[in-house]
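An instance noted here:
***
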Amino acid sequence: MTTSQPPTIEERLSRLENLFANVGETVVQHDATIDVLVANIQQLTENLNNLTEQTNRNINNLAEQAAQDRQQAAIDRQEFRRQADQDRQEFRQEIRQIWEYLRNRNGGSGSPA
């Protein structure tokens, strides 16, 4: 049976140097990846803030438009009622005129023949 000799101090130091070099390269790679991720997050945050501002402006505009529409609808309803009352009065007046015409044509009888 052969026994292997333990590594020398130089071999152990060399091995540790290689390990540290590999760890250093990995850290540099991860650092670059982290920088890219941070930049992406910053851009996404800015985009989200812009969308939030735009959405809030749109909501405010829509709320203002809805208030104006409600106000105009109330005005329109009031005008419609006024016009309907006026039309109803005119229609009644025309019916009275027709009724009087027919009554006078029939010699004053209560109902037309």
